[in-house]
Design brief:
This protein has 139 residues and is α+β, with helices and mostly antiparallel strands. The chain has 2 helices and 6 strands; from the N terminus they run βββββαβα.
């Protein structure tokens, strides 16, 4: 439910699928792979993919709103684009994984989804892309 995502038109038939993404949990030291569900309109699946990030981020009662941003990064002579979902609230716990990675205190979980050139959301493929995602979080 990020603010930069294109909404699915209500009343349109939608299909729910899953992609592989990376999550930085607030109570864990390292990031890990998760399955993230997204909804898409079958008539235009390339443009209208809406990530349902609220199921993978904790603190829904404390802070229901989810922020998102798009980060482009070059890593090992390749260009990567990621959509990063996060929450901001002073009562969420400090994220231990990001504090260990970047030395910055950020509250709550952080979810990273890969973006493609032709589609808005796609699977993260390999360890190189996971390292690029960690570089994107450092920024």
């Amino acid at each position: 439910m990020g603010m930069n995502q294109h909404c699915i038109v209500p009343g349109q038939r939608t299909v729910v699928r899953a992609v592989r993404a990376r999550v930085f949990r607030a109570n864990e030291i390292t990031s890990r792979w998760v399955q993230v569900h997204y909804a898409e309109a079958p008539r235009s699946p390339q443009h209208n993919r809406y990530v349902m990030a609220s199921t993978n981020l904790m603190g829904a009662r404390l802070q229901p709103y989810i922020h998102d941003c798009v980060v482009k990064i070059g890593h090992r002579h390749r260009q990567f684009t990621f959509r990063i979902f996060y929450k901001r609230h002073k009562f969420l716990p400090v994220n231990q994984a990001i504090q260990a990675l970047a030395g910055v205190a950020i509250e709550g979980d952080v979810l990273i989804v890969a973006c493609g050139k032709k589609v808005a959301v796609r699977n993260m493929q390999n360890r190189l892309e996971a390292r690029a995602a960690e570089q994107a979080v450092k920024r």
